[in-house]
Design brief:
CATH superfamily of the largest domain: Response regulator
Shape: elongated
CATH class of the largest domain: Alpha Beta
Strand order of the largest sheet: 2-1-3-4-5-11
Helix content: 40-55%
Distance between the termini: 65 Å
Number of domains: 3
Radius of gyration: 24 Å
Strand content: 5-15%
Number of helices: 14
Oligomer: single chain
CATH architecture of the largest domain: 3-Layer(aba) Sandwich
Length: 354
């Protein structure tokens, strides 16, 4: 069995120096750290995480709290997880996924056991009970998302205003004037204060008014079947629609299938543009979806960095909003009769804001 003495001998340092590094008792120089870590790799030394936690009163484990029972796992969520785990690994932390509910009950039990040093919250509600629990227990945390009151809260999030502005501008410049937003179901108690749904809809209502467009918002649950049902209702109630923007990625998948079954060609008859989706998800439809690409890799890293800075006593990471970016596919084109003429520039209200 490889011991700390073996590591110290191989690295040419004292056992105390190896202990300082492993247990975070005292800082060591970058050169010394590199020698010790090389020696551990060559000897196959494995750190005793339990002993380290007892010595330092820290586990170097952080949790990402994701309400999996309320939100399906998709490629977008996976991008948040993987980038967060990589960011943690680079800073000598381990990240675990806690699929706990948004009501905070399970979170109370878990943080009380001292299993982790801090928590990254995902799928944040405008009024999120998990925030109160973490504050009351003194647990360090950062949010990927935003509550309605942000004073003193470390957070990063999608820039929903910029995302919706860019999406509508793209469709408008192609010539679309009959747009519909398929939002989330805000009548569902689980999602009535869900940040992405509330902020996307608010942004769309504002931007549509600035363009002088009729504001049409329909609701859909977050499933492929719900997306199909939304398209049936769209064709029935708003048959002159030329483009739809959809918030939920699963509903967007169902929308394309639903339009195909209804005999509508995408994008020849109607364009489909999801506001939040990962490229791997977009490739599941035929034709492949044009999307506003969710900034999961960026936000997963930023949220983890924000938490680790707290744990390390470093300067706090400033709040950051990152917009989704247009990612090419095959479900968006100009409406019939406008494709060769262009859609014209932005209206005066939009130009004034730019």
């Amino acid at each position: 069995m490889v011991t700390m003495r073996d590591v110290a001998d191989r690295a040419g340092v004292s056992i105390a120096t190896v202990s300082f590094l492993l247990n975070d008792k005292k800082p060591v120089t970058a050169a010394t750290r590199a020698k010790i870590e090389l020696a551990m790799t060559e000897l196959g030394y494995r750190r005793n995480v339990v002993a380290r936690a007892l010595a330092s009163r820290r586990t170097h484990i952080i949790a990402m709290a994701y309400p999996a029972l309320d939100h399906k796992f998709g490629f977008s969520a996976a991008e948040f997880f993987t980038s967060a785990a990589e960011a943690a690994r680079k800073q000598d932390y381990h990240l675990v996924l806690w699929p706990v509910g948004n009501d905070g009950t399970e979170l109370t039990e878990l943080v009380g056991q001292g299993l982790v040093d801090g928590v990254v919250l995902m799928e944040v509600q405008l009024d999120d009970p998990r925030v109160t629990i973490l504050q009351d227990t003194g647990t360090p945390f950062a949010m990927i998302g935003r509550t309605s009151s942000l004073e003193g809260l470390s957070h990063v999030d999608i820039d929903f205003d910029r995302t919706v502005e860019d999406a509508v501008e793209h469709l408008y410049e192609l010539g679309h004037r009959r747009l519909v937003l398929i939002s989330g179901n805000l009548n569902d108690p689980l999602f009535s204060t869900y940040g992405p749904y509330v902020r996307s809809e608010a942004a769309y209502r504002r931007v549509a008014a600035e363009y002088g467009l009729e504001t049409v918002v329909m609701e859909s649950a977050g499933s492929t079947m719900a997306g199909q049902e939304a398209m049936a209702a769209l064709i029935r109630d708003h048959p002159d629609t030329t483009a739809v923007l959809i918030v939920n990625e699963f509903a967007a998948l169902g929308a394309v299938a639903g339009l195909n079954r209804l005999g509508r060609k995408v994008p020849a008859d109607i364009s489909v543009l999801p506001l939040l989706m990962a490229p791997e998800m977009a490739a599941l439809t035929n034709p492949e979806l044009t999307i506003m690409r969710t900034p999961g890799p960026e936000l997963g890293q930023l949220g983890t960095d924000a938490l680790i800075r707290q744990l390390e006593g470093a300067d706090p990471l400033p709040p950051q909003l990152v917009p989704a970016k247009l990612y090419p596919g095959a479900t968006v084109a100009g409406p019939k009769g406008r494709r060769s003429k262009g859609g014209g520039g932005r209206p005066a209200a939009r130009k004034a804001r730019s």
